[in-house]
Structures are given as structure tokens and as C-alpha cells.
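Entry 14. Ran structure prediction on the chain below.
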Amino acid sequence: DEPEMTCAEVPVFQPQVTLAGHEGVQAALMGTFKLAAEPVHGYPCYSKRAGDGEAHWLYRHSVNGTWVVSPYESWIATNAGDICSVLPAELPWEAGPCETGLTWRYHDGAAWQDEPEMTCIEVPSLSFHS
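Output, C-alpha cells:
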């Protein structure tokens, strides 16, 4: 008789990013974004499900290297979004403050506004797969 083979659960690192601190017009774009399957512009891309079931996207701008939050996947091709980091960075939580201390901005529908309360942190997370 052959022994029965079983698969053990294996921990898998699932990188996540949490954006927090904005309570204004773009507050729906705050939350925890999970690493998407495919990179965008050669860098990691993150997504989260919104309350209405639509996805929101966090990706690196292809020209200036800043990080952008978009409510629509179709906006990624044109580097559009409603929140962006002030400075370029390799990863979104590395988008540190500029000389004025500002890290992020949001669009209020008419113009870009500074958001000194917004933060972006990496959230290590493990999931188990068998």
C-alpha cells in the first residue's frame, strides 16, 4: 500500500498597503490595498474593493514616479487619479515628506489640495494556502 499524501498549509506573504488620514471628498479611496497580480508600469500595483464593489487602484506614475490612487482601472493608462504622493518613490510607503513635510495631495474636483494628515504604511500579512 502506498502512503496517503497530504499537502501542508504553507504561509504566503501577501503585501498590503494602508492609506489613512484623509476624511474629505476622497475619503472613499482610503483603506487597505492588496498587491495585485500584475505589475503596472514595471512596479507593484495594489487594489482594494470599494463599498460599491468597484475596485480602487494604487500604482506608480509612469513618468514622474509618484504614487497615484485612482477610482478607475481605466485611468491607470493615462496616469490619472484623485490622490498622489508629492515625491517619487520605489514603493508607496517610501514616498516620504518633501521639505515642507507634505507627503500626499488629493484632488477636490477643482484643484489639488495638500493633505498633511494622510499616511501610507506597509502592512505585512500572511495567508495560508494548502
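The chain has a mean pLDDT of 87. Will compare against last week's run tomorrow.
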